[in-house]
Amino acid sequence: MPSLPAKHEQLGMKHLCAVAFGIEIYPYQERILEAAFSKRKITIRATTRAGKSYCMAMAAILRAVVLPNHRVGIIAPTHDKTRIIMNYIADLLASNPMFDDLVMLSTEGMTKLERLRKEVSKKRITFKNGSSIECLSVDLDSRGFGAMGRAFDTNIIDETDMIDDESYVKIFRMLLESPDSCLIEIGNPFSLAHFYRHHNDSEWEKIHITAEDCVAAGRLTAGSVQEQRKELTELEARVLLDADFPDEIEMAIFTKKAIDNATKKAPAQENEQILIGIDVARGGRDVSVITEFGVKGNECTFLNSQTMDTRDTMTIVGAAATRADAYKVPVEISVDCVNNASVLDRLKELGYKTQEFIAGRGAHDSKRFFNLKTEAAFRLADMMKAGQVSGIPEASRYVLQLRAWTYEIRSDRQLKLIDPEDKSPDYADSLLIALYPAIYHGMFKILVPKRGLQ
């Protein structure tokens, strides 16, 4: 990871910004800028009006000036969003005559600021050391294809939570171009998508700036923050002022209570039966996932999982058979059979007890649920709320994907599960498939309560 040259490190970031921009930066801005020269992947969730975009403009300039032949990309959901940081960059470059010898500008009889703003309108500023700063719109209408084929050494993604996961994947690939590249994403924590995942990933440097941090730094007043809280709902205040991810997503199937119960430590038990669920990869970025639960009485306990980056059915069959053979109690294997029944068929041939799962099949209660998967998900959520499921790893793809499942109410008042846009939720699907027999086949003495429209 590139770092500041020794002479700049000796100055300190606070002093460097004072010399370069004539600005006394806030403590949290100092932390952001220091991270920009020491960490490869950084997420910044910040309250509104924290000055995070202005700080990103300083980071872009410093990296372009200090690091020769360095490409900085300002990436945002729309072109208008990219211009916010680019206009700050123009203002900062115009604030100090020392940048006159560093930036390549045409003259045309304009003032320096006018020339800089013209360069910004061209979406690119070039430096005499071979570096550049360029703005790039994700182009959400094309699902992120506007970012394809572009690569930068530093990727600054503004309003990252406004970018859907399908589009974000195309941006993330740019980080892989070089082992020295840097990705900085900033935004408000509106949803539990890629921004949330990165804030729960140990590989990312996480910076969290609240309204109270801004008050302590003198950026905001306590009175103004209090006035804002009066005008916002509790969820809005949590996201916009406290910069915290919401406990609940609107129209979420799996509530915080359900997830909290299901991630509690599994009790020690001698299982009476084993349930195994297989979600078979169908293409693209899908993976095949095998999930195992132990059952005793009314309790389902998460035991193990295996992920395979393969769609080879016989490899999947072999892995599932190996797992099933490891247990000395009855095993039932449920398999995702959408467009592919070969795994199920082969396991049947080998003598295993199997159950097919077809997500789009009609629900048992077809008046309330759009399809079988929707009904199963709602009933599983109720099992979790009732404390009948435990041991699911808390910091796992299972939890993230379960939380991302939402539903819509159709015109006929049916409930319909909505999968996340980024990809098939392989882990959540595998978990749901594993517990499918428990949900529907009378394994529990406690009846699962109905839920949905009240």
3D architecture notes:
The structure is a single chain. The chain is 38% helix and 19% strand. It is an alpha/beta fold and 454 residues long. The chain has two domains: 6-240, P-loop containing nucleotide triphosphate hydrolases (Rossmann fold, 3-Layer(aba) Sandwich), CATH 3.40.50.300; 256-440, Nucleotidyltransferase, domain 5 (2-Layer Sandwich). It has an eight-stranded mixed beta sheet with strand order 3-4-5-2-6-7-1-8, sandwiched between helices. A six-stranded mixed beta sheet has the order 13-12-9-10-11-14. A hairpin with a 2-residue loop joins strand 10 and strand 11. Helix 3 packs parallel to helix 4, helix 4 packs across helix 5 (79-94) and helix 16 (397-404) packs across helix 17.
Strand order of the largest sheet: 3-4-5-2-6-7-1-8
Q: Specify the helix fraction band.
A: 25-40%
Q: Beta fraction of the residues?
A: 15-25%
Kindly provide the name of the CATH class of the largest domain.
Alpha Beta
Shape: elongated
| Poorly predicted runs of 5 or more residues | 140-145, 443-454
Considering the chains and any ligands shown, give keywords for the structure.
Rossmann fold; 2 domains; Nucleotidyltransferase, domain 5; 38% helix; 16 strands; six-stranded mixed β-sheet; single chain; 18 helices; 454 residues; disordered C terminus; alpha/beta; eight-stranded mixed β-sheet
